[in-house]
Amino acid sequence: MEWENQTILVEFFLKGLSGYPTLELLFFVLILLMYVVILLGNGTLIVISIWDAHLYTPMYFFLGNLSFLDICYTTTSIPSTLVSFLSERKTISFSGCAVQMFLGLAMGTTECVLLGMMAFDRYVAICNPLRYPVIMSKDSYVPMAAGSWIIGVINSAVQTAFVVQLPFCRNNVINHFSCEILAVMKLACADISGNEFIMLVATTLFILTPLLLIIISYTLILVSILKISSSEGRSKAFSTCSAHLTVVIIFYGTILFMYMKPKSKDTLNSEDLDATDKLISLFYGVITPMMNPLIYSLRNKDVKEAVKHLLRRSVFKK
């Protein structure tokens, strides 16, 4: 590795699946196919949310943002990971690592906040349908979506700025596929308790607070649905939020599984993180963005009709 005065780190080595060449080839093909599905699925949702006038509603505006976010989020890490699978050189520059940390954290934070905004939108639609056009007007939902992006960028900028100022010594091996911020922090040859405190505050504000908003919103939604007398009415009300609820369960469920999964004493140290843990982390960043368009397409009549209309129009033009 390259060093300056043996103390200033200029690049990192991304360990990934080094030592597992067969797995690298297998997962290169698998992750590539999943990335193509992500681009096609989310790209289609973006196109129909812009093109189809029937989808000019807050829910589909948020959905278009979520799809764009998923494309950005996966593009910050998947292409470089695919290259590393086929390349013997698995290094990334210090500046490149900082950019990857910033983009990954910004997209992840934005998605958490955006899912909270979408839960509030579903709450208003089901619990206050008569006031929905007023509460969720364009003057409301556009700033809500913009605010999600701004929060993500600010949180990521602050945390990344504190991390890049840390001194890094001889250990430059990141036991991960990409520059995950916590993995990079642990390589610093200095006290990182301040950084960990900032991360704890940010996690509480931008991950747990949206989750609390989601739980409260769906609790109120469930109470409201149970008050509906007819089974048809309850089914229709639930169908309006089932897709979003499914996405939330997959998104937060994967996070909880990844970070709360019991670890043996041998794997508590990031240097000893096994291949299974790293693959779980990798698929967390791939499966949710891939599943989102499938869930919204399969469980939403408006989206299915818009996609069919788009395909018919494309075939007719040919």
Please tag this protein with its features.
Rhopdopsin 7-helix transmembrane proteins; two-stranded antiparallel ribbon; 11 helices; 318 residues; three-stranded mixed β-sheet; mainly alpha; olfaction
Over the alpha carbons, how many angstroms does the gyration radius reach? 22 Å
Q: For the residues shown, what is the average pLDDT?
A: 84
Strand order of the largest sheet: 4-3-5
| Helix and strand pattern | EEEHHHEHHHEHHHHH
Distance between the termini: 54 Å
Number of helices: 11
Find the CATH topology: Rhopdopsin 7-helix transmembrane proteins
CATH uppermost class: Mainly Alpha
Q: Based on the structure given, which CATH architecture is correct?
A: Up-down Bundle
Q: Specify the biggest β-sheet.
A: 3 strands, mixed
Q: Assess the beta-strand content as a share of residues.
A: under 5%
Subcellular location: Cell membrane
Pfam family, one: 7tm_4
Family: Belongs to the G-protein coupled receptor 1 family.
Keywords: Cell membrane, G-protein coupled receptor, Membrane, Olfaction, Receptor, Sensory transduction, Transducer, Transmembrane, Transmembrane helix
